[in-house]
Amino acid sequence: MTAKDWDTADDLWDQFNPYKHRDRERLRALACACARRVLAAAGPPHPAFSEVVDVAERYAGGRAPRADLLAARKSLRAAIKSFAPAKQRSAAVAVFAELTDESIEGFEHMLQSAESVLKKTLGRGFAAEKRALSALVRCVFGNPFRPVAFDPAWRTEAAAALARGMYEANDFAAMPVLADALDDAGCADADVLAHCRSAGPHARGCWGVGLVLGPA
User: Fold this and answer.
1) I need a surface site. Which of 11, 186, 187, 210 has the fewest CB within 10 A?
2) Which one of 117, 140, 163 terminates a domain?
3) At a CB cut-off of 8 Å and minimum separation 6, what does 160 contact?
């Protein structure tokens, strides 16, 4: 795969290999973004499922302590125990149960489970969904062939406030406004500006927002 392939391939989701991109917290952020797609398509089976997504996202971004992640996992496991045995072993449950995993194998299985649920739920609509999943891979990992050197001078008060507001609200509609703020701050990096102006989807864990937010 080349840098251009990464930018343009509609089937990047199929080509993505977690074992080549071993950043566990980026993998967790991608897994959470996929879990939200499952929630939107299939609906939440239990409040603990939505809770674990939110906490795991924040943990992945360094914005929730490990104690919160473990508490969400405990609540989720208690909820799962109330399900029938067949449902406990289902792909839908695996999508959420493995968001707190620490192994590459766990994240790989979670992404496979999410694909399985989305395929079953969306049917022919999964072709468009796969393009969205490919966009999420780009959103979380950026382009590994072109790492960005982010100038802290671009992290103005206006840009940081926009990034923080989008992250907290989990609403990324203001990404083009963030691009303008970065442009005003002197950012001329084509990849940063293009990503912020792209249609997305964007998610918590977005590499562009993460650069603006800086360390938690």
Assistant:
1) 186
2) 140
3) 212, 213, 214
pLDDT in tens, 74-117: 999 999 998 888 888 899 899 999 999 989 999 999 999 999 99
The residue type at 28 = R
Long-range contacts of 14-18 (CB under 8 A, 24+ apart): 14/130, 16/111, 16/137, 18/104, 18/107, 18/108, 18/111
pLDDT confidence of residue 38? 94
Would you state the structure tokens that stand for residue 193, as one six-digit string? Answer: 């500006």
Look-up of token digits 């405990």: 74
pLDDT > 80? residue 159: yes
Q: Which of 119, 140, 161 is the last residue of a domain?
A: 140
| DSSP character at residue 173 | T
Is residue 146 included in any domain, yes or no? no
Inside any domain, residue 129: yes
Residue with tokens 């968001």: 99
CA dihedral of 181, 186, 189, 194, whole degrees rounded to 10: 20
Amino acid of residue 123: G
Q: Is the full-model pTM beyond 0.90? A: yes
Same domain, 17 and 89: yes
One domain for residues 27 and 127: yes
185 and 129 co-located in one domain: no
If 0-12 CB within 10 Å is exposed, 13-18 middle and 19+ buried, where does residue 188 land?
A: exposed
Residue 183's Cβ-count burial label (10 Å; 0-12, 13-18, 19+) is: middle
Range of the domain at 193: 152-213
